[in-house]
């Protein structure tokens, strides 16, 4: 019998590895931060789903099966042309392979599309953290004028005219007709199955010392020590789930694509950015769009460093297409603060600094970053049901 439960993380602390590989310098940078293996994803009490004996969500749960169909369902979007899967394709690491994410017609996106893989573990979603959980993220993307541009009332009407969906929603949620809030619950349940916990890194962390290559092990020591990545990339997600400005260079398309600029300016108005800031800003304001706090200008959520092998390009605006470019950026001390003159506050993180890594050390660090990816995750596209025959 499947058990329904809220599953906590199963942390596996670094233990012996710290003694073997971490130098005194590394311990200074570590400041108590640890790396951990990833366990089953947490399941919210108000959106339970079936899990196996190890706490992993089951693919044959009717809620998950419904959510999978809705994930591929383009009839949730405004003009029925785009689905979640169009921007989160398994061909591109459950992202879209572009530096700037695909946008709804006549709009332009200015941020990179985050992977769905392991999103189930995140405290806040989107680059500016505006969605506290998967259910909110699903709704936010589907209804945003930049992304799905869907109207929730129209979604309900469309689904109500598809007998297969009517039956499935009744089975899963007990409603006579599909309800908007249940759409997001089903999609979130499906997304909680898109997780990866069996990587060389995870195997190493639970005691299989041969799971990682020697280069990856050396890179892990650098990660915790000389490179000091662990200051922000820690725990089971390799993320502090906080927000930082590290001076990522602008994406050229941000300033040169008219649709992107129009959409960005519209979003600033909708987010009630003060006019004096709107008139001067030339780059993405990041977390400030949500908080209006000058100290948050240019800050973005620390990404998880899992599934990197398949989810390029990287950074909030897709500025880098390879892990080597990312490591070079950090090795050079990251970028400059673009916001001090705008908001009167220096927001660039003091944690980033030149690393003075050798070519061999950079290669080893990349090897470690690659060890946090396992086999590529693939999902079979479901056959979507037709509308009812009204004849």
Average pLDDT reading: 92
CATH class bucket of the largest domain: Mainly Alpha
CA(first)-CA(last) distance: 43 Å
The poorly predicted ranges are 1-31
Give the CATH architecture of the largest domain.
Answer: Orthogonal Bundle
Q: Kindly state the percentage of residues in helix.
A: 25-40%
Major β-sheet, in short? 2 strands, antiparallel
Radius of gyration: 22 Å
Secondary-structure-based class equals mainly alpha
The domain count comes to: 2
Within CATH, the superfamily of the largest domain carries the name Cytochrome c-like domain
Q: Per DSSP, what share of the residues sits in E-state strands of 2 or more residues? A: under 5%
Query: How are strands sequenced across the largest beta sheet?
Result: 1-2
Count of helical stretches: 17
Tally the beta strands. Answer: 4
**Which sequence of SSEs, written as H and E, runs from N to C?**
EHHEHHHHHHHHEHHHHEHHH
Topology:
Layout: E1 3-4, H1 16-21, H2 24-30, E2 50-51, H3 62-71, H4 84-87, H5 134-143, H6 152-160, H7 163-173, H8 180-191, H9 200-205, H10 214-224, E3 243-244, H11 252-256, H12 258-270, H13 275-280, H14 288-291, E4 300-301, H15 323-331, H16 340-343, H17 359-370
Antiparallel strand pairs: 1-2, 3-4
Helix pairs in contact: 3-8, 5-8, 10-17, 15-17
Structure description:
This protein has 391 residues and is mainly α. The protein folds into 2 domains: 45-191, Cytochrome Bc1 Complex, Chain D, domain 2 (Orthogonal Bundle), CATH 1.10.760; 214-370, Orthogonal Bundle (Cytochrome Bc1 Complex, Chain D, domain 2). It is 36% helix and 2% strand. It is built from 17 helices and 4 strands. The protein has helices at 16-21, 24-30, 62-71, 84-87, 134-143, 152-160, 163-173, 180-191, 200-205, 214-224, 252-256, 258-270, 275-280, 288-291, 323-331, 340-343, 359-370, and strands at 3-4, 50-51, 243-244, 300-301. The strands form 2 sheets. It has a two-stranded antiparallel sheet with strand order 1-2. It has a two-stranded antiparallel ribbon with strand order 3-4. Helix 3 (62-71) packs across helix 8, helix 5 (134-143) crosses helix 8 (180-191) and helix 10 crosses helix 17 (359-370). The chain is globular, with a radius of gyration of 22 Å. The chain starts with a strand and ends in a 21-residue tail after the last helix.
């Amino acid at each position: 019998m499947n058990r329904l439960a809220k599953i906590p993380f199963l942390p596996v602390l670094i233990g012996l590895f710290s003694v073997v590989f971490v130098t005194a310098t590394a311990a200074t940078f570590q400041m108590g931060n640890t790396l951990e293996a990833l366990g089953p994803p947490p399941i919210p009490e108000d959106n339970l789903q079936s899990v196996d004996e190890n706490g992993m969500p089951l693919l044959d749960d009717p809620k998950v099966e419904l959510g999978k169909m809705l994930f591929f369902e383009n009839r949730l979007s405004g003009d029925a042309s785009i689905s979640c899967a169009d921007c989160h394709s398994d061909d591109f690491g459950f992202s879209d392979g572009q530096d700037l994410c695909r946008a709804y017609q006549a709009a332009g996106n200015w941020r990179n599309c985050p992977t769905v893989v392991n999103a189930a573990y995140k405290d806040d979603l989107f680059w500016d953290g505006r969605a506290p959980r998967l259910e909110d993220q699903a709704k936010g993307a589907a209804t945003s004028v930049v992304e799905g541009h869907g109207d929730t009332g129209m979604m309900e009407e469309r689904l109500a005219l598809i007998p297969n969906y009517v039956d499935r929603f009744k089975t899963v949620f007990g409603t006579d007709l599909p309800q908007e809030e249940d759409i997001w619950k089903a999609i979130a349940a499906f997304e909680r199955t898109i997780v990866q916990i069996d990587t060389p890194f995870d195997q190493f962390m639970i005691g299989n010392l041969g799971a990682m290559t020697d280069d990856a092990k050396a890179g892990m020591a650098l990660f915790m020590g000389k490179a000091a990545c662990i200051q922000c990339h820690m725990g089971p997600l390799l993320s502090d789930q906080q927000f930082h400005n590290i001076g990522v260079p602008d994406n050229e398309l941000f300033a040169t694509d008219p649709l992107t600029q129009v959409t960005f300016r519209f979003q600033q108005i909708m987010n009630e950015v003060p006019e004096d800031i709107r008139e001067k800003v030339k780059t993405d304001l990041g977390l400030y769009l949500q908080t209006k706090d000058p100290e948050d200008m240019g800050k973005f959520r620390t990404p998880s460093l899992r599934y990197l092998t398949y989810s390029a390009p990287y950074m909030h605006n897709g500025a880098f297409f390879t892990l080597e470019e990312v490591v070079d950026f950090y090795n050079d001390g990251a970028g400059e603060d673009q916001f001090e003159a705008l908001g009167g506050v220096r927001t660039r993180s003091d944690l980033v600094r030149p690393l003075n890594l050798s070519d061999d050390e950079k290669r080893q660090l990349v090897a470690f970053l690659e060890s946090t990816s396992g086999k590529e995750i693939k999902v079979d596209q479901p056959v979507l049901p037709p509308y009812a025959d009204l004849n």
